[in-house]
Structures are given as C-alpha cells and as structure tokens.
Amino acid sequence: MVGSKKAIISSIVMIGGVLLFFYLPILILMIFSFNDSRSLTSWAGFSLRWYQDLLSSRDVASAVTTTIIVALISTVVATFVGTLTAIGLSKSKKIVKDVVNSVNNLPILNPEIVTAIGMMLLFSAMNIPRGYITLLLAHISFSIPYVILTILPKLRSLDPNLAEAAMDLGATPWQALTKVIVPQITPGILAGALIAFTMSFDDFVISYFVTGAGVKNISILVYTMSRRINPSINALSTLMVLVITIVLVLINVLPMFKKKERMPIE
What we know:
Number of helices: 12
Structural class: mainly alpha
Mean pLDDT: 82
Strand content: under 5%
Low-confidence stretches: none
CATH architecture: Orthogonal Bundle
CATH topology: MetI-like fold
Shape: globular
CATH superfamily: MetI-like
Distance between the termini: 41 Å
Largest sheet: none
Number of domains: 1
C-alpha cells in the first residue's frame, strides 16, 4: 500500500515537472507581455503599451491579415480535397490504399526542413516567383495529409454498404455522398479543418523558405522581431498562443458535443 502511494506521488511529481518544463516559459512570456519596461527580464509594472504598439503597427497588421487569409483559404481547399480523397480511398482496393497512405504519410514523417527545401526547389525549377501564391500553395499541400489522416478513421467506422443502401432507395451518387456519407463523418471533417488551420497559422519553417517579395506571416514576423530587443514580440506571441489554444480546445470539444447529441435518450 505504501509502495503504491509512493509510486503515485512520484508519477505526479514527474508529470508536474514535465508540464512545468514545457509551460513555464510560455507563462513567463505571457506575464512579461504586460511589462511596462523594455526589459525582457526585469518587471517594472503592469502596462498594455506593447499591445497598443502591436495594434498600431502596419507590419503586424499586414502579417496578421496574410496569416488569416492564407490559413482560411488553405483550410477550405485542404479540407475539400482531403475529404474527397479520404472517401475515394475508403472505396479503393487494398493495394491502392496502402500506396496512397504511404505517400500521404511521407510529408507528416519528414522533417519540415526537408519539405521546405523541396518546395523551394520545386518553385524555383518551375520559375514561379516566391511570394503570396507560393506561400498559399505550400500551406495547402502540407495541410492535406493531416486532413486525410483525420477523416480516414471515421470512414473506417462506417458501414461500407451505407452508400449502396441509399442509392438502392433512390438516391443519386451525389445525394448519397452529401446526405449520407458526409453527415456521418462531419466530426472528422471539422477536426481535420481545425488541425489544418492550426498548422497553417503557426507554421514557420516551410513559410520562411517559400515566401518572398516582402510577404510575411505572423511566424516570420516574430522571427524578424526576435533579432532585436522588442517587447512587442511577447504580446504577439501571447496572442498566437491564445488563438492556437482556442482552436485546439475546439478540436477536442466539438467531437464530444457531437457524440452527446447522438446518444439515445433513455
């Protein structure tokens, strides 16, 4: 009994230490975003001056606009393509599934730097000037595998004869897809879309290699600001953490609500 209590206590201490190691720097960053001084180490009083500077900066406004537009467009396109691909894979032969799944997993397993350099060389070989378009294409391409990977488990849990049954009852293939299959996998589609948005919103490595012509997203702007002492970086990073946290909470909460709605009332 005593041994089990010690094991529980040691487990709690280890988990607490790991969480502290990961989240203490973020907490310190968020606290110092309200610091009245330019110092990044000493506290001089509570202030919102760095948030005011952030909101009045044209560079920040341009970066935020670029980030949101690219994230939204890439999310919509990646979700549409990823959903259709996942549905097509669920009806394909095993050898096709295995090959496509292997190819789909490569961008996820590869280090981002490899994907970034590959895309940069591709755009250079095709003489596509780096800028807004290349940034958008890159975000779409690396988001699609995550959408497919999120939707496939939902499709595997469905009855494979569902679409055929709907068409036997008079539905067209399009109606069977939109009114039978898609509603059943909506939680997976939403989760895939939120993951794609999060990946696009905070991506730095790939964005840094494929963008140009003065086009910057938030991550590149943070990197630029980090080269010199600029307390506004704390405020900007705090806002990014809050946005990503909200999206991640939605990813985990929305499927739970959907599951509760489907539970039969006794």
